[in-house]
Amino acid sequence: RSYKRQTLCRFDIDRLNAPFLEIFESLIPTEEEKAKQKQLLTLLENIICKEWPEARLYIYGSCGNSFGVSKSDIDLCLVIGEEDINKSEILLRLADLLQSDNLENVQALTRARVPIVKLMDPVTGISCDICINNVLAVVNTKLLRDYANIDARLRQLAFIVKHWAKSRGVNETYHGTLSSYAYVLMCIHFLQQRRPAILPCLQGMRATYSVTVENIECAFFDQVDKLQEFGSHNRETIAELVWAFFNYWAYSHDYANTVISVRRGSTISKREKDWTRRIGNDRHLICIEDPFETSHDLGRVVDKHSIKVLREEFERAAEIMQYDANPCVKLFEPYVP
Ligand code: CTP
Ligand code: MG
Description:
The chain has a five-stranded mixed sheet with strand order 1-2-5-4-3, with helices on both faces. The model is unreliable at 1-6 (pLDDT under 50). By secondary structure, it is an alpha+beta fold. Helix 1 (17-27) crosses helix 6. The chain has eleven helices and ten strands. It has two domains: 10-27 and 150-330, Poly(a)-polymerase, middle domain; 31-136, Beta Polymerase, domain 2 (2-Layer Sandwich). A hairpin with a 2-residue loop joins strand 6 (209-213) and strand 7 (216-220). The protein has helices at residues 17-27, 31-51, 62-65, 87-100, 135-148, 152-167, 180-193, 238-252, 270-273, 304-323, 327-330; strands at 56-60, 74-79, 104-109, 116-120, 127-132, 209-213, 216-220, 258-261, 266-269, 287-289. Magnesium ion binds at residues 61-62, 73, 75. Cytidine-5'-triphosphate (CTP) binds at residues 60-62, 65, 67-68, 72, 75, 137, 140-141, 179-181, 298.
């Protein structure tokens, strides 16, 4: 492999903008779908507020961070004030309440890594998972949504990357590949690194929003309406960015020595984080720092086998973007083992 290969963008790259934008548009949820999500949220809020008047229900994940494609499940987080609650007890009680309100496929998974209740609403056809007191996820959802509201190209790029990852079977943490959350952070990092930069580093700016969650101070600039011009000096189009994104992960990223950090707005060295050797199951083969839980490497799910799969998929995508006459078809061809 030639990791330091220098290639220029293909000469006809702009021809690819329209088809990429078309794919992006086709993935966006409709207003009708968003209205149905709201309807379900209101229904659930009513059920919950009768039992726990102090509790609040928050959307997190793709329906809240604006990176959700059409027909996504909704991720919800029930925040109950008290610290020392018995999550299993609450989830079981919640499951009972939901069942008696005619919601379907209600299931409490109390032993999961993140304990949840699953349900399906027969009226809207939407499924959702409810977890408890996962406030960091609610806050990182806001961070992602705020980034999305700075420059439209982030949402376009992330939809295309997520669609590619799902089509190619590399969006499955239980098989050692990356979560959607990790891919969105990779896109944000990438746009922070363009010259001129397309995205700023919100955590490096004056904090206008700040909360402390589980002893972690989460602070960043969130007045993104003031940053609408931020990326305007960079005129790169979505096709150029897709091309460059895959090139970066195929040939330019230094997997051996660096960690990507949206918090810093740059890469940092593995040495600085002490992520140089395997500890337990953390192999640090591709390092993506969580913006708030900075000891979390979102690449920790990746192992010796799946890193190879992942890098070969990045290379395949880069090759297609470079040479294929019709990359918008080939890029998303389902992976067949
Ligand atoms: N999350 C997290 N830490 C992780 C993985 C996920 O905090 N290691 C939280 C994030 O708030 C993320 C949410 O869980 O937004 C959902 O994660 P994921 O399913 O990866 O992303 P979605 O955006 O919901 O993607 P999809 O459209 O594939 O459902
Ligand atoms: Mg999700």
